[in-house]
């Protein structure tokens, strides 16, 4: 037996109360009839004291009652091992793919159904499916959630340590950069893809790219080679700060990828975007060096907060160690794991201003070490009003696949950690305390009645 709040056991010291009551037993004196009082002296006290327990049963009941109350304050529980052999397992499959899956894996599914497995739609709500759904020809319902989110949500529906067979492909397109943690035993049955090679045309900021994808990688190649205006960037940082070296490397990567020239700190012409890497307020001269309707990216100053969290870049997570507390009510672009602003955006005096509540520094976060740094800067450096962001990798035709072994090994670790369940014992102790209290009251009442009769 274990206790949630062991400090509650200090209440056991209350056992001393019934002990004192029963040991300090004061007896009333008795009147003795005698024939002569000639030889009697001065009258003595009409009472006597005895340090002796006369009613052991009542004493034990009262001690047990205090003992149970102390245990209730400490909230006792037992650690119970949850068996992985649940009565019914689950079969997870997307309803749109169910007819094709049943056709190719009929023997496996029939065998699981005979063992008591249930079929559920791998989508929001995880609604039950039946074999009748294999003949339906309904309009496709595409889930807006990633497999990562759905696997995590399934923890609330699937019994802990239950066996689950999941029929789907392994394409990386379905996942964010963090593998899900689940409390059930997942067996992934991969679906064969009819095509493992695909290509498509992506457009960003007026430039077209040809994407070619296979199970191992996806590559992009710029198609239109027409001359474009260079991107002029102004960077300011305080002495002793070296954050600009990471920013410059990312800008060069953008230049290499887009085939669009990036000019940094050109004194002759105004910049289309300015990076203010300083704790000091942005100077008026620096703002005037940015074109009208241009972009200003500035470090924010304020209360420093140590934060063991991550930066959320549209579902992709980057380790975060420190941030600046934000009270700004602008639109949130990046957040941490608790929803606090890391990057916000507003428009002031014909400038699109990005407020950054961290730093381009490995001591603050791991953004500058991650390949996502370039992707995250792309929509800031190259403004495209017709695009919500730069995410070629999110295309449904992306053929890259996730390693199955990596996912299953992680899940086995999570299952092992979650097969122990705490079973509260509070109700049993309350019942025992009530019965003992009732017995103590009955016994005490009888003792008082007998004393009156005498």
Automatic annotation (TrEMBL):
Pfam families linked to this entry: BatA
Segments crossing the lipid bilayer: 6-24, 56-78, 425-443
Residue span(s) of domain Aerotolerance regulator N-terminal: 1-76
UniProt keyword Cell inner membrane, yes or no: no
Any coiled-coil regions, as ranges: none
InterPro entries listed in its UniProt record: Aerotolerance_reg_N, Double_TM_dom
Keywords: Membrane, Transmembrane, Transmembrane helix
Zinc is among the record's keywords: no
Protein name as it appears in the record: BatA domain-containing protein
Source organism of the structure: Pedobacter roseus
């Amino acid at each position: 037996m274990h206790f949630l709040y062991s400090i509650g056991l200090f209440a056991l010291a209350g056992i001393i109360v019934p002990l004192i009551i029963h040991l300090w037993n004061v007896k009333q004196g008795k009147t003795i009839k005698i024939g002569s009082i000639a030889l009697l002296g001065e009258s003595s006290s009409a009472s006597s004291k005895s340090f002796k327990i006369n009613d052991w049963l009542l004493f034990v009941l009262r001690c047990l009652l205090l003992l149970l109350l102390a245990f209730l304050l400490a909230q006792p529980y037992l650690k119970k091992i949850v068996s992985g052999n649940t009565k019914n397992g689950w079969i997870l499959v997307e309803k749109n793919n169910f007819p094709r899956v049943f056709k190719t894996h009929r023997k496996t599914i029939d065998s699981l159904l005979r063992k008591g497995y249930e079929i559920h739609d791998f989508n929001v709500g995880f609604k039950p499916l039946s074999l009748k759904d294999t003949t339906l020809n309904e309009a496709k319902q595409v889930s807006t959630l990633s497999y990562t989110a759905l696997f995590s949500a399934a923890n609330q529906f699937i019994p802990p340590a239950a066996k689950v067979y999941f029929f789907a492909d392994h394409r990386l397109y379905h996942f964010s950069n963090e593998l899900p943690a689940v409390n059930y035993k997942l067996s992934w049955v991969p679906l064969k893809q009819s095509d493992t090679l695909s290509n498509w045309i992506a457009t960003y900021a007026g430039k077209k790219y040809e994407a070619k994808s296979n199970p191992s990688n996806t590559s992009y190649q710029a198609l239109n080679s027409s001359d474009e205006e260079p991107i002029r960037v102004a960077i300011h940082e305080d002495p002793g700060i070296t954050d600009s070296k990471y920013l410059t490397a990312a800008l060069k990567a953008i230049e290499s990828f887009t085939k669009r020239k990036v000019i940094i700190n050109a004194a002759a012409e105004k910049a289309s975007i300015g990076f203010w890497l300083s704790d000091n307020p942005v100077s008026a001269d620096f703002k005037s060096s940015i074109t009208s309707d241009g972009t200003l990216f500035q470090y924010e100053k304020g209360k420093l907060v140590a934060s063991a969290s991550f930066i959320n870049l549209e579902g992709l997570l980057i380790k975060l160690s420190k941030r600046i507390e934000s009270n700004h009510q602008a639109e949130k672009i990046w957040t941490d794991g608790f929803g606090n602003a890391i990057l916000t955006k507003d428009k002031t005096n014909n400038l699109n201003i990005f407020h950054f509540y961290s730093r381009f520094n490995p001591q603050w976060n791991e953004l500058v070490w991650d390949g996502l740094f370039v992707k995250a800067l792309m929509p800031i450096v190259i403004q495209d009003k017709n695009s919500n962001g730069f995410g070629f990798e999110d295309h449904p035709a992306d053929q890259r696949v996730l390693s199955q072994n990596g996912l299953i090994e992680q899940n086995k670790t999570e299952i092992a950690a979650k097969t122990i369940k705490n079973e509260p014992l509070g109700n049993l102790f309350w019942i025992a305390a009530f019965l003992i209290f009732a017995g103590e009251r009955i016994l005490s009442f009888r003792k008082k009645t007998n004393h009156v009769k005498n």
